[in-house]
Amino acid sequence: MSNHAKTITAYAALSLDGRIASTSHEFVRWTSREDWDFFQSELSQADVVVVGAHTFLAAKERLEHRNTIVLSRNMHDAYGTVAYCRPEIGAITHALAPYRTVAVIGGSFVYRFFLERALIDVFHITIEPVVLGSGIHFLAADAHCEWYFAHATSKQLNARGTVMITYTRT
Ligand SMILES: NC(=O)c1ccc[n+]([C@@H]2O[C@H](COP(=O)([O-])OP(=O)(O)OC[C@H]3O[C@@H](n4cnc5c(N)ncnc54)[C@H](OP(=O)(O)O)[C@@H]3O)[C@@H](O)[C@H]2O)c1
């Protein structure tokens, strides 16, 4: 996929033990207000959101009014601003062609797919000071990713200890 004139930004909120959720279909509620506000502000500026089938079901009401591409191996009819796409590079390149600002919002299958193919330009990773103990790891099993970002900045978002690390290619 050519990234010329297209920016692909990914967002993930992790627990201290590297989880993004306790179960596959929950709407995550343990992230901080500061991270939530940042995330919503960013999404409002994105042309399209890319999301996995589980995450879409967990946050359907909030995503349905946005341009949303749901990655799924199963065929579904598009409706409203929601389109479905197979997790294959050709199909995704085609689906993203009309958009310039792309927000990749997980979950673990989607992060793995984009990281393995080095498609992400900017990755905002928020670490929340909570331990889940079990649940969904940041990257789906058997991920093979080389960490290809060249630069990182970090910022403490609140006194509780929430930290955001922003990785960029340059
Ligand atoms: N903390 C955070 O920042 C954060 C961010 C996002 C999500 N979440 C949470 O994480 C949970 C969902 O994560 P998840 O990892 O279970 O699911 P997910 O990545 O949202 O969705 C996985 C599903 O999407 C399809 N899929 C997408 N890309 C695929 C690929 N490359 N290979 C195979 N299948 C692919 C498959 O569905 P089909 O069977 O339809 O093919 C797969 O079962 C939810 O609880 C959500 O709220 C948290």
The residue fraction in helices comes out at 10-25%
- Note the gap between the termini: 18 Å
Mean pLDDT: 96
Strand order of the largest sheet: 5-4-3-6-1-7-10-9
CATH architecture: 3-Layer(aba) Sandwich
Major sheet details? 8 strands, mixed
Number of strands: 10
As a percent range, the share of strand residues is: 25-35%
- Total helical elements: 5
CATH topology: Dihydrofolate Reductase, subunit A
Q: What this model shows, in words?
A:
With 170 residues, this protein is of the alpha/beta class. It has a single domain (7-169), classed as Dihydrofolate Reductase, subunit A (3-Layer(aba) Sandwich). It contains 5 helices and 10 strands; from the N terminus they run ββαβααββαβαββββ. The strands form 2 sheets. The protein has an 8-stranded mixed β-sheet with strand order 5-4-3-6-1-7-10-9, with helices on both faces. Strands 2-8 form a two-stranded antiparallel ribbon. A hairpin with a 6-residue loop joins strand 9 and strand 10 (163-168). It starts with 6 loop residues before the first strand and ends with a strand. The model has no long low-confidence stretch (mean pLDDT 96). NADP nicotinamide-adenine-dinucleotide phosphate binds at residues 12-13, 20-21, 23-28, 52-55, 58, 71-74, 87, 105-110, 113, 136, 140. NADP nicotinamide-adenine-dinucleotide phosphate (NAP) binds at residues 12-13, 20-21, 23-28, 52-55, 58, 71-74, 87, 105-110, 113, 136, 140.
